[in-house]
Amino acid sequence: QKQVGMIEKENGEMVSNGSSTNGSALESSSKEEKESHEPQKEVDIILNNVVCNFSVRCHLNLKQIAQTGCNVEYHKAMAMLIMKFRRPRCTASIWSSGKVTMTGATTESEAKVGARRCARTLQKLGFNVKFTNYRIVNVLATCTMPFAIKIAEFASAHPRIASYEPELHPGVTYKMKDIRATLKIFSTGSITITAPKVETVQTAVEEAYNLVYDFKNERRPEDLEHHPLAMRKRIRAEAEEDEPLTERKKGRNETSQ
């Protein structure tokens, strides 16, 4: 009987232990389900500038282009000519050697369309143009993390790759040598990326998110006020409030005339 009682106790203990393990497993599974159901915050990447180069393989007379072309600025001291386009909105820097640099496009397709339109314009002006050696050389993009960043701690944790000099620049400069990307990280959570390709920008943002997440900080409403765009709007609003109505009317009349 004593042996049977011991077995029953052991069985009871085993049953109770099994129920506890099952309960912990259920709790862990429920936690995992909650974590999986939590909405993940997305980071939007905005392309601000796509720079590309191409060559027309012929000598260009910049003075002739300045006299016969439209939307053209000739800089004799710099030995270059600037041609602007509306659709797509981009600017071409043209040299007499036939090298052309396009800036201002926001996508790769816009950059290529603008480059071909520039080549076609030069061809219509009487030059023997051949569209060659086209390539994208630089992409400038910005993104905003869903949290603020402790940039001083981040810079101290990565002293070899990250450089932070608050006297010269308010952000941390972080270089990714493997993908040739440079990041400017600010305490408000905004990041500026400079990379050679659009695909590289996405890779850089993904790597930066994992690096910066350990140094996240709660975002304050005051941080958004120090954003450059917000500062410009605030300065304009203050200037309009300080300016008397008579001066505003005079300025509008002068512009209309």
UniProtKB/TrEMBL annotation:
Chain positions covered by the region annotation Disordered: 1-40, 224-257
Amino acid composition bias (Polar residues), ranges on this chain: 14-26
Keyword DNA-binding assigned: yes
Places the protein is found: Cytoplasm; Nucleus
GO biological process: DNA-templated transcription initiation
Gene Ontology CC: cytoplasm; nucleus
Top-level division of the source organism's lineage: Eukaryota
Pfam family, one: TBP
InterPro entries: TBP, TBP-like
Ranges annotated as biased composition (Basic and acidic residues): 29-40
Keywords: Cytoplasm, DNA-binding, Nucleus, Transcription, Transcription regulation
Keyword match Cytoplasm: yes
PANTHER family in alphabetical order: TATA-BOX BINDING PROTEIN
Record-stated family: Belongs to the TBP family.
Protein known as: TATA box-binding protein-like 1
Source organism of the structure: Allacma fusca
